[in-house]
Amino acid sequence: GARRVFQSPGTIYEPEGRAPDYWRMARALHAAGLRGGELVHNSFSYHLTPAGAMMEGGAHALGCTVFAGGVGNTELQLQAVAELRPQAYAGTPSFLKIMVDKAAEQGQPLTITKALVSGEAFPPSLRDWLAQRGIAGYQCYATADLGLIAYETRAREGLVIDEDVIVEIVRPGSGEPVPDGEVGELVVTTLNPDYPLIRFGTGDLSAILPGACPTGRTNRRIKGWMGRADQSAKVRGMFVHAGQ
């Protein structure tokens, strides 16, 4: 049976199976520089959606300890950061910026030096802003249905596709694959025995990035998140569809 049931945008209820690191996040966290024995401040939600559990499962697989911060309560989360002194952060990039700004305003030193962010676009300007403040931020692309799809490496060239999913880029509305380099909708197949999804349309736009990753990782790469194929909008890391 399922370990948990979550809600994903739409609204659809979906299971989390019992396999260790069920959402396969450890690879993305490792690529972002996290290592066993470190403390991760996890500011993704643990309620309704699986984002908090996704990051926690991956961090545990690496041997990390997790502080389950969840969303909001900036003052309390900063207090926990001051007292627990975590090395790493997992959450949305916008909330990390809020925490960094608030800590600077209060004259509080931050011990966070590495971050895996997701749930929103992560523009180079924000990545550079964090780097200037001593935080190496990396992004990953994941969904509530599929878990990890692709992740950034230190090469900073697109996102490497996770080995446990099959990604196609298709013409929106037709399902017909487009040539490498052309923008289309991401369609993902996962052969997860607990919850197999065949040619699942994510509604996200991207393109295949030709060539191999300079880090030596051999899987194909995508250019990253390039917008939506539908009329949904993201609010605080969650999709809101027109019908809602």
Can you describe this structure?
It is built from five helices and 16 strands. By secondary structure, it is α/β, with parallel strands linked by helices. The strands form four sheets. Strands 4-3-5-6-7-8-9-14-13 form a nine-stranded mixed β-sheet, with helices on both faces. Strands 10-11-12 form a three-stranded antiparallel β-sheet, with no helix packed on it. The mean pLDDT is 92.
Question: Features of this protein?
Answer:
single chain, globular, 9-stranded mixed beta sheet, 244 residues, 5 helices, alpha/beta
Please sum up the structure shown.
This protein is of the alpha/beta class.
Beta-strand level of the residues, as a percent range?
A: 25-35%
Principal-axes shape call: globular
**Uncertain segments of ≥5 residues (pLDDT<50)?**
none
Q: Determine the N-to-C terminus distance.
A: 31 Å
Largest sheet: 9 strands, mixed
Number of helices: 5
Share of residues in helices:
10-25%
**Whole-angstrom Rg:** 18 Å
Average residue-wise pLDDT = 92
**Tally of extended strands?**
16
User: Structural class of the helices, strands and pairings?
Assistant: alpha/beta
* H/E topology pattern: EEHEHEHEHEHEEEEEEEEEE
Largest sheet, spatial ordering of strands: 4-3-5-6-7-8-9-14-13
